[in-house]
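Crash report, auto-generated. Payload:
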Amino acid sequence: MQQTKILQALKELCTGCHTCEIMCSLKHTGMVKPALARISVGYSKEDPLPFPIICEHCKDTPCKETCPVPDAMYTDENTGAVIIDDDYCIQCLACVEACPFGAIRVGPNQEILKCDLCGGDPVCAKFCPEVPGNRFPHLPWPTQSCLQYVEPSQVKNNQRSK
Amino acid sequence: MDGLGDLLRIDLSTQKISKEPIPVELYRRFLGGEGINAWLFWEHFLKVDPKIDPLSQDNVLIMGVGPLASTGFGAGSKTKFTYKSPVYNLYGATSCGGGFSSQLRWAGYDHIVITGRAEHPVYIWIKDDSVEIRDASNLWGKGVLETDALIKEQLGEGFETVCIGPAGENLVRFASIMASCHRAGGRGGGGCVFGSKNLKAITARGTKGLSIYNPDGLFEVAEEFRKYKNGDLGSAYNHRAGTMNLIRDTHHTGLLAYRNHQGRMVPDEKIDKLDHNWYNKNIGVQSKACSPGCGFACGGWYHLKGNESPGARRHAGEWGPKPEFGAANPFGLGCDLSDLPEICHINRMCNDYGLDVMEISMTLSFLMELWERGIISREDTMKWTGESLSLEWGNYEAMEKIVEYATWRNNELGDMVSGGLYRAAQRIGDAKNVSVLKYAMYGKVGAAHEGATRISSFGIAMAVAPIGAHHLKGTGISAGVSEKFLGKPDGASSFALITKGGGLKEGKGASKYMLQGAGHALGEIFMAISNSLGVCHFLCSHGSLNEIPLDILSRGVRATTGITLTPEELITAADRVTNIQKAFNSRLGLRREDDTVCYRWMNEPILEGFAKGMKVSDFLEPIKDEYYVYKGWDKETSLQNKEKLEELHLQDVALVLAEEEGLACGHS
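Recovered output after restart:
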């Protein structure tokens, strides 16, 4: 399989603006409805700092391994996205439980919400605002955004959300 | 209707809750947010005497979100509150960020009108279609941080809250409304109106979402706005430094609030310890957006390890919000407290108690000046508080104590201060039998911390703002905008300072200030547009962007709601909003002579720095002349003309004013 681009989150640049959730819901539902977003902003217990919880589209796919229905989950060849096929999904929530990052969400009506990388142009990364890192106040601005869709060579190590 | 929500009416006396759609026509006339708030407020006071005591149950509390808020347009989601101000007794309005407005909008509502008074403490609970008035006895007496946490604990994550702290409960007249813990709707005592209605909090969770007229169109316009914003230096600067950048940026003008605005420059070494560079290097952790959909992220989180400064030790381990200029300037420079961690802490403390930081800090610096002048002494503090308290400049302990006293009103000093700066000055003057009002910094009657008042573009803003001294009801415009709309750059706020009033020394009379009044009238309109559409005022303020993106805003409204409002229609609607605000104050009897600022700003010039020699009396009256003319109001009285109101299709407003002698008599 070809090397695909990767969605990464630079946690310390998250401003908690929820634009990723808003745009994700707009893309997938045609409404501004963050309750149905496939990405979310989380907080830890230790500090008030927000960070995005993104699907890592893991190579070892614990979600897909757990799924009891054949063909309900597959990896898209072009984007590398691990995708749920709604036609087969029985909403058993096994994948939700299995995800080590809490990245598969459940909507108000038990909708299973999972990132599909928007078919290769993820709107969360596209609209995530560029901010300068406070730790480098002398740098020119703006610098970069928290969510980035990048070539594998540009991936920073700290990308795991949790 | 796509992109729009309903109006929720809640009467706390009868516990009646009703919902009604908001006519599209109302959005076309007043845009939303502050604009529709203004109209709902006007309508309320057609049934209720405008001269009521703001603490009476007949006062109204209105809340609104704008059509571009909570949409992903990219400029945040502001919450607008409107009420009759308990501290200034005028039209009252305040604005804040936070997550509440978005949850409200996603639950299906754009505006709430709250009337009456609950018999016991309550909070309002909103979850999509369900709205309830619930008992708040377990929240009453709690600070803002604890209240927010308790509500989340009881109701689950996802609920966003606006609430008051003990200050609002104790009817401190300048109590603020706090959103998502640390975003303050601070001016004018909205928190006191909450308290007077026995309303502790409003909490909302919206999962219904907002239908969008043209989703692809919204993506397009959001992309366009984002490019526009990133291309602008001022906007990027706001990102990096927030409003706190003004500490360093205005230092050399001599316009900072140093020692209660006595006109001296701040020593450089103090600025070094208080500016955004010190903040970023030592305690700043991460940028923070105030509200959903904000691409500016001018806020931030600080974390104190304890070794950053002498004051940090006491608060080691503390997390809190980066102070705005409106806290750092009056606490740090006004009270001469050169320890940024202490400023951070006292700001956080005011947030928790629900106090307006601008009013309390300017009252503190006022008291400190009285101390310096020997007008009040340990004898007085002993008498008023039961302890011998020194009010020397920068005495942090005393500052913290007075914040406590004001919140709980548990001694005479606290009670004096709880009425706001103007009332405190009157009461202390009476107690000491000496006039001290000249040491209080205010415009109309509202305390203000901006020394920039002594330059023309700010001076006029402070004098004419409908809500008492304020620079965000019309901040200056840029030279480019002035060129575009007025034909010359002279209306720009920067022009005011660069030329020091356009040739003050030549003494050419009124003509030398040409276009500063017009520039302000224009700035007022742009601010009313951003305040009504529910987006951040950085979009329309002088420091941020070189031009006002009316076209992008117009297309944003179209994509979201399907309503076509041309840039010209946005301008007309905003003008209508400012005219409603003005009309209410005219009904209270305010006239031209009320559009003024305090003694010091009027008469005492800046003593050092780039703005040396500037004072408001040099320019205010001619600029007011021009401002009224540009607004289409009567120059002599400042009152509105019938023709102007008719032009804005506000005939009914003109009729009310005519009946109460609030309309200009002659024709101009």
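Post-recovery validation: Chain B has three domains: 6-205, 231-440, 454-659.
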